Amino acid sequence: MAWLTMLVEQKGANLITATICGDLFDQEHALRIQYNADVIINATGLASTDLANDKSCYPIRGGLLRVINDGSDFPKLDQALTITAHAIHDSNEIVFIVPRNDRILLVGGIAEPNMDTLSLTIDSPIIKRMRARCEAFLPGLKKARLDPEYPLTQGLRPFRQRNMRVERELRPHSASSSFHSPSQSLPTSLPFPCRSPSTISSPGMKMGGSEVGSVGPKQVSSRIAHTYGQGGAGWSLSFGCAGDVLGLVEEALQDLAPRHMAFETAAVDTPPSCLLTEGELYPSDPADAEGDSAIVMEYNLLAAGMEGGYTEAGG
């Protein structure tokens, strides 16, 4: 996290620590004026229950032990060892043994839906079962020493009941409110054609006789882009989701009507937000990541984020 923070600061980001409560949609105009932002990106994990008014968000608590992996107590491991959930007949208690770096081995794991407190200890029954399960799988771990500085890592995986969400805010604002860019105009160096940020109407996408993604003649589209609900796969999906968010930002800057992610065209059942960086599942062009970043950095973005997941025990 420290490295990522340094990276975005080097690219020109200005980091501000503040607390925002309530639906972002209701506060959008005020927030964009306050922070001089053209677009708001909501990446707040479980906090999206409140900030996106999404009651489908829920936590899954996880935990891992950290043991010394220097070869002095048991043969040093340099490869991951796991057992799939169905093989041990319990999707909430698995075997997950993964080297973290040259010195630490992660041993786990567990998944406790709807547990929203970080109250686990080494002596918690579920942690004791987790350790015994891994020691039975790899007996050498019975001699393992816990990391004295950080023996137990735990966190809340930010899940949703209906898949992750990587899409723009679908609710339109009334045209009586001014939701232009705070500067009231967009840069002339846009690499794509631009609509006027005034009231727009779009034919939308027809699905089952209804239109999705259209706004009426007296409505304006929100410039909020959401990306949350990735659960324990935040790192795995981060690159693909970031690419999708870039596209959403470009659409928002043009004030195009948003589209419901469930209706995106895809040849497979995998949701579009689950694209792989190689592009096998969703057509994208990751050829120029620095160029993409430059496009975003031309504008003022308000990115609301928190460490909603947990990287140590993300498996």
Could you characterize the architecture of this molecule?
By secondary structure, this protein is α+β, with helices and mostly antiparallel strands. Helices cover 21% and strands 22% of the residues. It has 6 helices and 14 strands. The chain has helices at 2-10, 24-34, 48-51, 125-137, 234-253, 289-297; strands spanning 39-43, 57-68, 81-83, 93-99, 104-110, 112-113, 152-160, 165-168, 173-174, 205-207, 210-212, 219-220, 224-228, 301-305. Strands 2, 3, 4, 5, 6 and 7 form a 6-stranded antiparallel sheet that branches. A hairpin with a 4-residue loop joins strand 4 (93-99) and strand 5. The longest helix is centred in the C-terminal third of the chain and has 20 residues, at 234-253. It starts with a helix and ends in a 10-residue tail after the last strand. Mean pLDDT is 77; it is low at 183-213, 263-299 and 305-315.
- The share of residues in extended strands comes to 15-25%
By DSSP (H or I, 4+ residues per run), the number of helices equals: 6
What string, H for helix and E for strand, traces the elements in order? HHEHEEEEEHEEEEEEEHHE
Major pleated sheet: 6 strands, antiparallel
Please give a quick description of this structure.
About 20% of the residues lie in helices and about 20% in strands. By secondary structure, it is α+β, with helices and mostly antiparallel strands.
